[in-house]
Amino acid sequence: MAAGEINIEKGEVSFPAKLTFQVWICCLIAAVGGLMFGYDIGISGGVTSMDTFLLKFFPHVYEKKHRAHENNYCKFNDMLLQLFTSSLYLAGIFASLGASYFSRRFGRKPVIIAASAFFLAGAILNFFAQELGMLIGGRILLGIGIGFGNQTVPLFISEIAPPRFRGGLNGMFQFLITIGILAASYVNYLTSMKKDGWRYSLGGAAVPALILLIGSIFIHETPASLIERGKDEKGKHVLRKIRGLEDIELEFQEIKRATEVSNKVKSPFIELFRNRQNRPPLICGTLLQFFQQFTGMNVVMFYAPVLFQTMGSGNNASLISTVVTNGVNAVATIFSLIFVDLFGRRFFLIEGALQMTVTQMTIGGMLLKNLHLVGPISGHSVPLIVLILICVYVSGFAWSWGPLGWLVPSEIYPLEVRNAGYFLAVAMNMICTFIIGQFFLTALCSLRSHLFFMFGCMNIIMGLFVIFLLPETRGVSIEEMADRCWKRHWFWKRYFKQN
Prior knowledge:
Layout: E1 5-7, E2 12-14, H1 21-48, H2 51-57, H3 59-65, H4 79-106, H5 108-127, H6 132-160, H7 166-191, H8 197-203, H9 206-215, H10 223-228, H11 232-243, H12 249-263, H13 268-274, H14 279-293, H15 297-310, H16 315-343, H17 345-370, H18 382-398, H19 401-411, H20 418-447, H21 450-469, H22 481-484
Antiparallel strand pairs: 1-2
């Protein structure tokens, strides 16, 4: 078989590769890091709406929740309660920085193993928590695990996957996030009816951590990481195994060329900011993560039960509504896995932004008209209509900004600054997630239904950003991204002109 197909006119090289069982299983195991992340996202909102949890750790919130004439938008407004959710992401920011160094120095695989170990320790501590300090301590350990996993897993998948299958395989990370969220919402529904059920909800995080811990022992290190650390022969061996071919010389030489450039860079962070050719991926990768969080999706994921109770649903009804919403989230993500490498990244990002804009604005309008400061919501059908709108909104996120917010930043940086660039993208994600987790309930109390209009406007800005500033990266090998995407873009090509 030829080493590759070359388009002389365009100067493009297509490396031959099969979608082998080795690639599939390595990506699937690594993507369990998304299952951990998703379980935590889904579990926190349900737990914070449980009366037994509030009575033990936040009794003042429990009292406020059950006051007959309490402001509908302010029932759960408490900084310590929000810290329970957000402390994880604050820890994740610093953990991501450590992961960016360790994954370059020691490889992707050891960092993935460490991620599962920290997450497992956090789950155990939360299960046995007796006071708020233990609870927050467990959340911090979970955050270290999330920071390590989110920094490393998408990079691992992007490096091990063949370019033409990279979108779908990387989408497994987001798909398992949605499965984790769905599983968490169902666990919350079951445990809400038991005494101290919140312990089983929080302790359940140990299950995906154990799966990843055991599974990650058997995955291959990525060829790029092996070659970058001087293990050329081992890198060749793994490349042959995961590509299912003997003739991998062209791809090996391309990775070798990229690693030689990479190894000349002593400080990736300085190089990332010093070299103007790195600014297009730096700006786009960081903004994609910023926008992903300010779609408003994590508002739904963290606080869906709280939102449904705000609209007058009972505790069980709000948890059932959350299960329905998260089921839609998981199913819709499958569309992205199947079609993202067919239709491309830009198509889904633009369509998703439009869909989320319309639904956010409509939800805001309905709450503005029907949910007053005190008393039940006007109209018995309004909660059901809002639930349907939230499901439409969630599906728009699930096949666009959800998976692609992780995929695109993982595939656009050159190898020499890949860990540094992706760290900044993940750090932006964690910072924005922390802000939303820490301040959303306060913002809901202050802005009320207008908060949904704010997120709707943000989605308009996101769509315009993709239309004008994000190049299509479908089917392009990571090593060729600069030549085939940034240098041909109407705006970013100016950063590649010689002075």
